[in-house]
Amino acid sequence: MAFKRKASRVEAGRAGRLQRGSLSAPCKVLDVSETGVRIESRMFVKSGDALQLVIELEQGRTLTCGLQVVHVRSPQLGTKITSISSEDRERLTHILDDNVQTSYSRR
User: Which of 26, 62, 67, 83 is deepest in the core (most CB within 10 A)?
Assistant: First the structure.
């Protein structure tokens, strides 16, 4: 059975930081969508774990969201966004919109 993705993913290639309880580790955000994030990290996680992610954006800004691990293929993990503030949701939408505009302008 094939998994159908609800939202398209956009390559991010941004640095970030994962937190689980008192544990914290650097990570690389590989791609994002409106509903999830694919991450590369050395933090040991298992499916179902709850994490906090801070993504470093331009001009010193950050985007923070709560995640739940959906699958792990070490060192990569797929997550779904479980909580995000309205301000950070707006930042995420801008990241996705900017990528769509950039990809269309290349044609």
Answer: 67
